[in-house]
Amino acid sequence: MLTVRNLNKQIDGKRIIENVSFDIAVGTITGLIGRNGVGKSTLLRLLAGILDPDKGEIRLNGSNLTDHPLNKNSMFYVPDSTSMFNGYTVQDLVRFHRSMYDQLDERSFYHWLNHFQLPANRKIRSFSKGMKALLFMILALSTRAKLILLDEPTNGLDVIVNKQIMQLLIEEVSDRQISVIMSSHHLQELEKIADIIMFMKGATIDSIIRIDEVRQSYRKLQVAFADSSSNPWDLLPQVEVLTQVGRVTTLLVKSDVKETLQLLQESQPLLLEELPITIEDIFISKLGGDQYVS
């Protein structure tokens, strides 16, 4: 579906994207996460063709998008701000995008518009932030694009509508085998819907993990010892301390899970309990640090 190789971009002399490479398979949802300012939005704009890379290539279904720009109508990008369309009515918006997407399914668009009780005859500037987010998610799915790029798409949505639109997105991915790359700070949301998570750090992709591999490769443990001055995990590079409150320490085990558990048990802890692991735990482990703006 999508192949990205050695992508680089500088803006005003500042390195924003450096040597980014990854692949997106058909019928998958990929979450793009990272601290503020690491280049997530810039990466999505490069993929959408809004910005040109300084170096590297982006291939969609085997075609280099620089050489074949018309193939970009196989993807749809929803930015984090859609204020440029504030002067449009919904009908204007549909007409504008129909000129670029011949396959735009107006019947589905207006069906979903009615389903979510969005007005069809008002200026978009009169929509709330959540209504705009919902409108452009519906539009993205209605274009029948094979690849959808979403930059913080659920900001402003209430809990009920958010759940409904995420379910719609999952169904469309499954039924039509489209692919989605979604940047979001809502880690719990991504954990529920994504197949893959890409972690951005320092202008590049730090790591890529599959959601179904998280619970196989990582463990989150809560431990306590009578003598808190002697910690067996101090000598274990695969173990990271997440939090410590008094004698109780929460650990993230990143490899050698079975051996690490055995060692901790042999150290006779007062408490050794396994906790549910989340993407947020891995986010803190991989991307935490004072050099990144919160």
UniProtKB/TrEMBL annotation:
Protein name as catalogued: Acetoin ABC transporter ATP-binding protein
Organism: Paenibacillus mucilaginosus K02
Lineage: Bacteria, Bacillati, Bacillota, Bacilli, Bacillales
Keyword terms: ATP-binding, Nucleotide-binding
InterPro entries: AAA+_ATPase (IPR003593), ABC_transporter-like_ATP-bd (IPR003439), ABC_transporter-like_CS (IPR017871), P-loop_NTPase (IPR027417)
SMART domains in alphabetical order: AAA
GO molecular function, a single term: ATP binding
Pfam families: ABC_tran (PF00005)
Stretches assigned to the ABC transporter domain: 2-227
Keyword Flavoprotein: no
Domain of life: Bacteria
Nucleotide-binding found in the keyword field: yes
